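Could you help me review a protein record that somebody else here produced? My question to you is simply how this chain folds and whether the tokens agree. Thanks in advance; the entry in question is below:
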Amino acid sequence: AVIADVNRRPVKCERVRNRLNVLTTSKKVAFTLAEVLVTLGVIGIVAAMTIPTLISSYQEKATIAKVKKFYSTFAQACQLAVVENGTMNEWGLSGYEENNDKNSQYLLSDKYYASIDKFMNNIAKYMKAEYVPKRTLRANNKVEGGLYFNDGTYIMGIYLTPPNSCTTPVALCGDVYISTDGGVVTPGKNQFSFLFYADGKVRPNGSSKSVFNGNCKSGLNRGLCTAWLLKYENMDYLKCPEELEWDGKHKCSE
């Protein structure tokens, strides 16, 4: 038994020695500095290529959502205002006219501004928005005031047709221009327009092939791209206008 134990001992010691050799001679797996820098560079390039596209896509969807929300709210407010005050041709709205008083700080007449105030106040209470009376300062031709909403959208401009135009319940009485944010105003990107009629109906501007081709597609006035944006839910007229058709191709990717 003793001899057998002695004979086995070298074998056991040899196994232990082999294991120690493996542990002491094995190399640790790690990245070199060059490999890390190359990886970070690739990640940076991919990010630079994809992040702007993702941000642009998000901003476009946010803008479309704001325009759709405004359209629904504004249309409902106009209908309710007509129910309470009668059709807009009975509101006594005065059309656009210049101020004859050259010493005045305003470009437009007090009568016209009073009409704007009346229209805005009649609908503001149904839109849960704050109306700041609009005035155009003569010194710098800067428009101040508007109807402001919590999501950053606001009615930045309004045009009332002449009184002899808004005379029947179905007549066009004017249009409003909205901005979806407080940045630099760019028609078709963050500025859009809507038409309103005496009976309270509201329509997005540019809802015909001729208006789309002559203004939105051509770039002459992309504030009239509103109907396209709502109908097709994209702003591809900013990317590939020459490829789009009102009754044809609706997206650059098609």
Q: What stands out?
A: Helices lie at 2-25, 33-85, 110-127, 209-217, 226-232. The first helix runs from residue 2 to 25. The two ends are 88 Å apart (CA to CA).
